[in-house]
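Deviations from the work plan: none for this task. Representative record:
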Amino acid sequence: MNCHVGNMVCLSQRSQAKFRMILAILILIAVELVHPTVSCKNETCSQLLRHSLRLTRLMSKRTTELLETYKTSQDFADLICDMQMDNVPVSTVSGQTISQRILSVYTHLKEFLPHMKTVMEQQKDLNPPTNPVAEGLNRMITHVRHIAVRVNCILEILQPNIPIPEPAESPTGIPHAQNIFQQKAYGCIVLTRLQELLSQAVQEQKSLKKGKMCRKSTKNGS
Amino acid sequence: MGSSHHLLVFLMFLHYAVGFTYNCVKILPDSSSSIVVEVGKNFTATCHLLEGCAYTSDDIEWRLGNLSIAKQSYHRINETAVSVTINISSDMSDWLKCTAPKESLSYKPRSIYGIFLRAGYPPLKPKNLSCIAVQEDKDISPNLNCSWDPGSRNPLIDTTYTVYANVPGTVLTHKADCKQHLARFCVVNLETFPIHMVLKVWVEVKNALGSERSELQSDSSYFAKPNPPLNVQVLTEDKFPTSLVVTWKHPIDRTILKLSYAIRYRKVTSNVWIEVPESFTRGYIESFRLQSLEPYTQYVVQMRCIGESNSSYWSNWSPSVTERTTEAKPASAPDLWRIIRPTSNSRNVTLIWKAPVKANGKIRFYNLSINQNNEKFESHNITADNLSQMYSMELPAGKMASIEITAYNSAGESPKATLSIPRSDKELPGVKDMSWSVRDEKLQVKWTAVLPLPHPLKLSEYLLEWVKIPQSVHQKELPAGWQRVPKNVTVTTLNAGLEKFKRYNISVYPIYKYQPGHVWHFQPGRPVTRPAYVQQGPPKEGPTVTVTKSKKNSAELTWEETPLDSHQGFIIHYTIFYAIGNTKQWKSETVGPNVHSYVLTDLASETDYVVYVMASTEAGSVKGTDCTFKTMKYGDGEVEVIVVVVCLSFLFLTVFIIMICLRKREVIKKLLWPQVPDPSDSSIAHWSPDFPIKADLPKEDVSVVEVDVFDGKSLCEEDKGVLPLKKDKYLSEEHSSGIGGSSCMSSPRHSVSDSDEGDSGQTTSSTVQYSTVLGSGYKGQTPSHQPPAFARSESTQPLLDCEEHPDHLNESQSRSSYFRRGRELEPGVLAPECDGGSLTFCPVQEEEPSPVAEEPPASALCYMPQKSGYRPQ
């Protein structure tokens, strides 16, 4: 403000300096937002594990209910939902150690998200506009993301020095030229496998709780 | 809107400034819109003269709006630039202009440049940010309602409030722009409520002078507000009269929000809630037993819930549920009292009682036991009923009674209440003094404590009794109540719902107790009673006045006291208003409340008065009905005095007249009864010494007339028709002889009627002159000693037969007293007063009452033949 006409150059230089500072802050904020580990510091281990377990249990229950709703609305037999479909992620949790198994849960959750979106879109197209399955799936997607955040935090606690690989939310690989039956079968398979995954995730977290994960981490000074 | 408008104005100004004038000045800082400046801070602007400008810095002038800025604020930088520094105030939103004025007679154009300043404040940091997501159905609503305190300072410039919400760890941030000026709340739609996640919410306030932000970050449940517990029920248990069981359902699944609960309860009759300690209901439970309650009492129960470990907002309280605990046996005795009304030779005792305070159930019946002189007298089971909670009995004055009463409900019996009624002559002392006053529309009673009594009597308490008077005959409920107060209290307020404008008798009883055995006995002392009103009003009706005595100048008024129920207060006085007729000039007299008659004095006599009586209480007055009366014309005794005076006057007058008469009787006699010559004493009778009296009676010139008293029977039959005629002649004044000028004949009483006069005219010829012989019977004068008088007559009337035939005359003389008396006289003897030679009649001295006056029928008989005698004529 105190620059004068004779010092116009001075003003422009100060503006550039401000811009650079703001840009740096924005980048920092973006990094902070993207990096999920930031949220993990707000809760203790036990709180984290408790909330994660409750959320996973809730979503497992909700997925079961949603699957029932789905089957009822689509008039499907259970056999169809158990069909083999290669492009749908498997629900099997793999790994030798608890950390690996939790990482497997995390990875699978991330893999399921695009499929859930696809099923939701298909359901919106199939039964617009008030499709309870679509609405349930929409909420489910959000909650699965939240579970992923929680599991990520658990992984940070379990293996703080190992970077967590972030699976990209890549396309499902399911061809668009599916007929209605194929779409319905696909949706049911996704929900069924998701439910299985969440059930296993509950079990894995229970085993974490039993395994005194938080006590150990507390002792380690986490 | 405001800024675009200003921009337009600014551009127009610039267009004007640039397009129509040569402008060689410029202000820095410059802006195409307004320049926002902070209130309270200094703002410096510099006016530059551009190249080629003919002005110098001395020509530059600063103006804010239309006002020039003082030169002291100028700072000359060089030959082409002058700055100005101003302190911004809140009302300085205006144009800041730099001008180089046109010199007079100069070709140089005027130069001007301006910038628009907008004064304002930087935003204040929002305080007390809070966000709530309520429960919807079985989930938490994704709509997050956030509110905050924006502060009271108006920023004066456009300021925006934006609410952000983000789940840390995710890239998605939800945002809501709050449109209101100085927004206080906003709703952010999270699409899906982040259950069991950390939620970060912040509100950001921005304007041209800066931005502020308030933030909340917590577990998402912290933002959730669950619904109250579902299906709250309160259950009773028969065997547990002091407990209630509360059951409910979780309003939300525990996987979403694990809740703990709070229970509160109160009696229906109370407004104070009792909350169950949270530690008792901390678990994830769905039932709870409330204990230590009162039996048979209605309780209201409410519940609410909160996230475990207070991790959410409290829910609202659930709807109230009311339930009554079961019955237990009464825990206190009934409240027993009595009302004693003395009768001629006994006492009428009405026992009244109230249900036990701690009835613990519905009282079914009472057992009343009465002992007289320590012997069981009677016992009754009385059904509990509000209308029959009394019992009346007669108690002789010389007997004492002891009453016991027990209340029963479905669970058992109450403790026993006892009351003693002593003999009439054994009453215990009462309080010394008692008074009352009204406070807050309630009666406050004050009394003097009783002195301590010798052992074993102890003062237990005081009892205040109120009885409404007058008592209605048809009243079913006893219009009485009572209240007990501890023995150390000497002033209390009656908790009774006493009616306004009704009189109550307030009594204070000391209640003594003694313990002859194992049971305490209670006996009231002598009462002290005062009438009282909780609120007085004007009387309902005025007294009806009647006038019992009305006199000449006074009137006695009487009025009856109106019914007590219509008094509505204590009558403090009566006022008598009275006025004459319709004059409306009222006079008044005021008398005390106990006076019911009054004598009005100084009234006008024989005047109509209107009178009425007005009754007054301290709250007002009301007049009674009008009464009219008229005062008397005469006072007491006036009439009697007048009558007595008149009578006495008359008496005196009479006596006076009589005295005069007596003294002047001779004169009166002469006046009233002039002396009529007695024919028998007439000299005529002794006249004519030349011929014998008997044989030579003049037949032609003298006629003899029998006067006055005739015995009809003494007359011969042939004389009957003639005698009246003779009598007529004798009675007729006109036809009396002019001889002697007889004044005795002048009395009108003895004149004959006109017709008779005519007749006599016919019978006696006017041509005949005759002498009339008048008898002594005139006017009752009976000549006793006068002999028959004869007068010479010049009448040409033929003589009567008797005259013509002396024989007949003699015969008649023998029957007639007149002639009899005449016969007794010696012929030729005249009355001593009379001269022998005179022909005039002499008055006869009458000494005897007139036979005519005494025997009027004889006279009448004399006239009868006369009438018949006329007819043949």
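The radius of gyration of chain A is 23 Å.
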